[in-house]
Amino acid sequence: MSQRAAPAxxxxxxxxxxxxxxxxxxxxxxxxxxxxxxVPSSLEHYRSVCTATSEVCSERAVGRPTPEGxxxxxxxxxxxxxxxxxxxxxxxxxxxxxxxxxxLIFLRRSxxxxxxxxSLFLVTFGPIMIDSTDADTLLAAQPxxxxxxxxxxxxxxxxxxxxxxxxxGGRFVPHWTLWLAVAFSAFDVSRTLFPxxxxxxxxxxxxxxxxxxxxxxIVTWSLVYRYRRVSSVEQRRQTKWVVFxxxxxxxxSFVQLPVDLQWIDADTPLVLLLFNIGFTASFLLIPLSVGxxxxxxxxxxxxxxxNRTLVYGLLTAMLVGFYFGAxxxxxxxxVATTDEKSNLAVVASTxxxxxLFNPLRRxxxxxxxxxxxxxxxxxxxxxxxxxxxLRNETDLDALGDDLVEVVRDTMQPEHVTLWLRSxxxxxxxxxxxxx
Length: 435
Fold this sequence. Notes:
By secondary structure, the protein is an all-alpha fold. It folds into three domains: about 15-300, Rhopdopsin 7-helix transmembrane proteins (Up-down Bundle), CATH 1.20.1070; about 310-370, no CATH class; about 375-430, no CATH class. Helix content is about 80%, strand content about 0%. The chain has helices spanning about 15-35, 40-45, 55-60, 65-75, 80-110, 115-130, 135-140, 145-165, 175-195, 195-200, 200-230, 235-255, 255-260, 270-285, 285-295, 300-340, 345-370, 375-390, 395-410, 425-430. Helix 2 runs antiparallel to helix 5 (about 80-110) and helix 17 packs across helix 18 (about 375-390). The longest helix has about 35 residues, at about 300-340.
């Protein structure tokens, strides 16, 4: 049975409020300085040509074109300066969005410690942790920035851990997750302070990977537990917004998988630019969804948004897979029968996709409603059945019994009572003068 806990008091007052605000301002100014002063080093990073082997360039200098990549850019009509400007512009715009959403939350809710943690998480995690180009290039060009960069990275990793363990109620649920959060934060801090130690030791790299997987599993379990056992209706809505944004960001980040697994060469800078844009845009869903969850969770119906995303995402994936599969099969048949390819395969596949769109969408919608929104699905079916019976039913007593049953099935109240006014009472009410 669900156990709703009393809402945690997360307001800050007096000296603690002043100290928290000053800390936020100091950290944010540091982040802005890192983002601003890293512009020259970022420009130099993307502008310089990597002359090492393709494997080294793909692992240690992602985004830097090789000599072959620079020539490929020229063949595509793009200069190296344009490629550099676009990459830096994408990174800086993304940094601005993360910082802007965090600053907006700070301006609106800085007296709430949970909102303040969320704001600090957005300001530090996005510009420094998600895209580490700013920090890495700045440290490589000016090692004197080591202390502020490492400091912000530590704050970002700790705030990220606390955010996923505390949001939205501001309490550790269950209570023993506090010690896990402390352990995970300590491990992240050690990895930030001693990056070379972890990169040189395969055993420590393996341990780091397992700790990351453990963190993801435990945070997910804690999130589900908190959602089902503790969260209020408002907190559940906020959780849905955050999970929705994080899930879409992770799904969008899979476009980087070919780069990480080196399925493509590092001398394709135009492809890497497109991947950078897609990766950055997908992860911007995190600050936007978190901002809505904290400030405007009532603005949209998140259930409708999730429903449409599931339906049309699955529909798009199935149609794309069927489309290319049909083209391959039909082209194979044409080659087998006529020894040459034909454009009829593309035309036929397109016509089949157009014919399948609406029927497949309805089937997917019904599947999603039954699987994820069973209560609403059953309620809608009950109302549809009652509407059909209402058109044919003439017995008022039977209709009243049916109405009570529909209300009991759809709204599930503790008690249901139906009161009908008699004709005499209705006539008397109509004759009474208005007060």
